[in-house]
Amino acid sequence: MSVQNINTTPQIHQMMEHDTSLSKKDWKTHSLVVLSYLLVGIGIVLACAFPYIALMTNHTVAILIPAVVIASGVLGGIQAMHFGTPDRTVEAPAGSPKCPFIGLHRKGQNCWLNAALQLVFNTPAFKKRLEQRSFWKGGLNDVMSAFRQYKKETTNVSSVDTQAIRKWLSTKVSSLDPSPKIQEEPWQFLSYFLDQITSQLPKQTVKTVSQVENKASTVQSTNEPLTFFELGVYYHEAKSLHEAFDLYFNESLNPRDKSLRFYTASPEDFSIRFLPKDSSGKVKKNYRMPMQWETTERHFGGKSQYVCDAFLYHDGNSSEYGHWVACLYDKGHWWKISDAIRTLIPKQQAQAYLDDSAWVHYQKS
């Protein structure tokens, strides 16, 4: 796989509606949006007319009337959001490559789960594992069923019910709220997903070489599956991804110890989660993320070439608000998957999103 042939045309090809008619769900959603804007506008006008209303009635009424109207508008907007994305069929404009991915409807605040499922269902390494029955021993039955349903569909938007998956996931992950009104984060699903497949993955030897002050070095070996790195605070101090990995593999609880952890072989693929630096939940790196990356002997016991083929990023000022999106690579093109909307994006835009990514997947090339 190579990213050298990615289309660098600066034009962004936005998905176009194939059917301009609106369903009953669409009409309800759009009507609520229009009504909420109208109510908020009326409330603002009434607030500006406070002196006149107070003269005709009293101060309490003059305050309550615009407050109730504005609150009704805001609640209407929230309710419209919970109806989810419109049920529309979308297709690329003439001349664009056909999108190989299927969109997912969003019911409520489930964009985080949609993005995570897109990554799992469409990244070649994860698809391969999902197709191997030997990986599953009951821990991911609901995900497996959704994956089979997703694979069989030929429409542009899948009928997979992500809210049903969220309810199932909440029985597995105690910190997860089953309500679609609450925004969560994609690694609540991805971490559970990786935990379930870890026991079935081939393990690599990890050697830890430690030297305390002037004493002789000691070597310890353990067997661990090599699939996932949670860089945490390491990437905040680094000026490149290589440096972030150096800090990760040199982790030592005792600051006086000189420790070097490394794997004796290179994995076929791996994922990286970047933990947020502060309470905002946003990931802010001091360096550009590579689309192509060569690991060093310091990390994996040998040099290997890797290509980024999928990542997740968050659009918003806080992880509690905003929108989660998946970006997927296929045959020289990057696609931005935002719930039911699929957009072909140029390499420059994909790079900008990758630099702000919170979860990245690399595949050996």
List keywords for this structure.
single chain; 365 residues; alpha+beta; Cathepsin B, Chain A; 3-stranded antiparallel beta sheet; 12 helices; 37% helix
Backbone CA Rg:
24 Å
Mean pLDDT over the full residue set: 75
Number of helices: 12
CATH superfamily of the largest domain: Cysteine proteinases
Separation of termini?
5 Å
The amount of beta strand, in percent, is 15-25%
The shape is: elongated
Task: Give a short summary of the structure.
This protein has helices at 24-48, 50-56, 59-82, 111-122, 124-130, 141-152, 162-170, 187-198, 234-237, 241-249, 297-300, 347-355, and strands spanning 16-17, 90-91, 103-104, 157-158, 203-212, 218-225, 228-230, 257-263, 269-273, 292-295, 304-315, 323-330, 333-338, 341-345, 357-364. It has 365 residues and is of the alpha+beta class. The chain folds into two domains: 1-17 and 93-365, Cysteine proteinases (Cathepsin B, Chain A); 24-82.
Task: Provide an overview of this structure.
- By secondary structure, the protein is of the alpha+beta class.
- It has 2 domains: 1-17 and 93-365, Cathepsin B, Chain A; 24-82.
- The protein is built from 12 helices and 15 strands.
- Strands 7, 9, 10, 11, 12, 13, 14 and 15 form an 8-stranded mixed β-sheet that branches. A 3-stranded antiparallel β-sheet has the order 6-5-8. A two-stranded antiparallel sheet has the order 1-2.
- Residues 1-26 and 82-91 have low confidence and may be disordered.
